[in-house]
Amino acid sequence: MAGADAETGTETVADTEANAEAESKAETETGAAAVANARAEAAMQAETEAAMEAEEQGYYRQLWVEEPATRRRLPDPVRASAVRAVIIIAVTLIQAMVAFLCTLAGSWLAFPMVLSSVASTVVATWGALDVWVTRQVWNQRNGVVSVPSSTARALRRERRRARRQERASERTKERIRRQGGGAGQLSHS
């Protein structure tokens, strides 16, 4: 029995040492995990503080920032003609490409496509000229050109004169309405 007690004593010492090693390992792992958790929490805290500080300063990165336009928008008639010209030119380029590929393939469709490409080229040229002419006409009519001979200035003068006359006639009509509308009156006295 004494031998058995001695064996259990050695076993308990070995077990105690193993347990101590396991505990120290667990503490080390737990300590490493705790250190890692502490570092992660510190990083999150720093990010939160930086975000709060940025908000306090009014600076934060927006998803969408509107920038002012560098050029003014084209007038509507000019935009319409430009869109029309771009569509016509795109169709013309597609026709030319199809004609070229049909020619390479030796297809019967090559000749009609070449003819339609020539016609489309004429129409595309007209579309590009239409943009230029529409822009010039708009500039002349709406006063972008500040030349003394510009017709826009005279048109604006005529419009102002017509508006003045219209306002004056409205005022006289309103005055007559306020005075009783002239119903039953022979004179204004």
DSSP strand count: 0
Helix count, per DSSP? 4
Oligomer: single chain
Shape: flat
Rg for CA atoms: 45 Å
What separation lies between the terminal Cα atoms?
Answer: 146 Å
What fraction strand? under 5%
Task: Describe the 3D structure.
The protein is mostly helical. The chain contains 4 helices and no strands. It has helices spanning 2-57, 76-105, 110-142, 151-178. Helix 2 (76-105) packs antiparallel against helix 3. It is flat. The model is unreliable at 3-10 (pLDDT under 50).
Q: What are the SSEs and their pairings?
A:
Elements: H1 2-57, H2 76-105, H3 110-142, H4 151-178
What are its keywords?
4 helices, mainly alpha, flat, 189 residues, single chain
What's the short story on this structure?
It is built from four helices and no strands.
